[in-house]
Structures are given as C-alpha cells and as structure tokens.
Design goal:
The chain is α+β, with helices and mostly antiparallel strands. A hairpin with a 2-residue loop joins β2 and β3. The longest helix has 12 residues. It is globular. The mean pLDDT is about 95.
C-alpha cells in the first residue's frame, strides 16, 4: 500500500510496526501487546498520525523510521 514515517519511542526496543486487531489499527513497538492498547484507530494512517503526534514534542521521541503499510 505504501510507506509511512513513524517516530520510535525510547520506552521500547525494536522497530515500530502497524498492528491490526478486529479491523482497527495501532502502532506497536518492542514488547507491546494488543491488550496494552486502549484505543484502536479506524485506519493505519490515523494510527500513525496519532502515534507521531503523541511523540512529536516529547523527550521520549527517538529516530524516525520508514514502515510499510500493508
């Protein structure tokens, strides 16, 4: 489908990825589990936008990586 840029969160190891659960999406990283997520988003793009917005001006923001949206 395409690639998006996602900020890494310094709280987690590993590369972020987009997870799907019951037709909803969220950015996951490291040892995050689906049960850790309280809000799932309608589209993968919305999930990325919300994740990046949360980290944009935060001290936990790490490097930005390119991730494939399937």
């Amino acid at each position: 489908m395409g690639k998006v840029l996602i900020h890494k969160c310094k709280l987690y190891a590993g590369t972020p990825y987009i997870a799907e659960h019951e037709g909803k999406y969220h950015v996951m990283q490291g040892n995050m589990k689906k049960t850790d997520v309280q809000v799932w988003h309608d589209t993968a793009e919305e999930a990325v936008e919300r994740w990046n917005h949360r980290l944009a001006n935060c001290r936990l923001k790490g490097e930005t990586v390119s991730v494939e949206i399937l």
